[in-house]
Amino acid sequence: MTHPPAGTATGQGLATADLHRVVDAVWRMESAKLIAALTRVAGDVGLAEELAQDALVAALERWPETGVPTKPGAWLMATAKHRAIDTFRRAERLERKTALLGRELTEAEEPDWAAALDEVVEDDLLRLVFISCHPVLSREARVALTLRLLGGLSTDEIARAFLVAESTVAQRIVRAKRTLTAARVPFEVPTGAEFTARLGSVLEVIYLVFNEGYSATSGQEWVRPALCQEAMRLGRILAELTPAESEVHGLVALMQIQASRLRARVGPSGEPVLLADQDRGRWDRVLIGRGLAALDRAERAGGALGPYALQAAIAACHARATTVEDTDWARIAALYEALAELTPSPVVELNRAVAVSRAYGPAAGLALVDVLTDVPALQGYHLLPTVRGDLLEQLGRRDEARAEFERAASLTRNERERTLLLDRAEACGRQLGA
């Protein structure tokens, strides 16, 4: 198979739909680098995105005639640079004209915009990660802006992924850019304690995206693999940019091990399949291997494991077990206890109760769950009655279990999960009547 010489174009005659798919794929891969480089020079993430979008429009106009360049990313970068230089020069001329009118013109050479844009700064992408996930923004705004700037997703795609109105996502993104500008957030990688604090925000955003894909909070689909893929991609980028950060590798490990179960989590008709009922032969061993390798990197980074690495260690216990019965539930319970000490949370306690029930019996788990029934933060959390119903069913208290499953069904916003819970409630009723 021969390849065209460098600098020539390929793809003449591509159908419009095919061309758009190519452009879309290139944009997903290259847009973050474009926006990062442009933000460094422009100092304005909103303007940087506009300039990058201009390059995308130019590609849609030119490539149908010239074909797709052999290095489409480089073409987009070059085009974006030309647009940026023109924009900066116009702004410079306007400033000088304004100064001249005010008789305050001083001699000044035009900055070398081309050189500034050509400067190789390895931290550009990392800077963009930190500005997209800045704590000055709301959690929802951070998620939307991260997917837009780093994932290259359109407003419509983000809206469909999270089942919210496109106008809502658009407003979040616009407000996020304005907030960053108004707060004069510098385009830089923080240092010291601020780096650690900001890194936590970055990891939170990536994991929020992953969790929405792994277990959708609402809608008709139980899982949304595309969101999981996007979160893992962002995580791997961050791991390459911060190789010494244990928690980054811990998060990558956690996501990859969890994602290895995606195919087994859904039945033929899209219905949820719980962990105990999954065909472990359908688990993705390649992803498990990658996840375990990332966990090893997190452990070798030194120091105590953080929350994401601890959760990855828990996921690894499941991944290494050939059956539910072979799972080291005692170790999982101990890991959850360590996680609870590090980040106290009623949700962590609920998960620990499940592990305790597996290791030491349903009665021991139920005792821990009953302590959580009055915790305000869990009152609307559907997994609390779900877990309690499961333990009650194991103990033969099916009437109580049925009530818990029905309550859980009334709390979840995911239709697939609601159906599963109502089926379990009905099964408890049938067993009572048997």
UniProtKB/TrEMBL annotation:
It holds the Pfam family Sigma70_r4_2. InterPro entries: DUF6596, RNA_pol_sigma-70_dom, RNA_pol_sigma70_r2, RNA_pol_sigma70_r4_t2, RNA_pol_sigma_r2, RNA_pol_sigma_r3/r4-like, WH-like_DNA-bd_sf. GO terms for molecular function: DNA binding; sigma factor activity. It comes from the Bacteria. Keywords: Sigma factor, Transcription, Transcription regulation. Gene3D superfamilies: 1.10.1740.10, Winged helix-like DNA-binding domain superfamily/Winged helix DNA-binding domain. The keyword Transcription applies. One of its GO terms (biological process) is DNA-templated transcription initiation. Residues 198-298 form the DUF6596 domain. This is RNA polymerase, sigma subunit, ECF family.
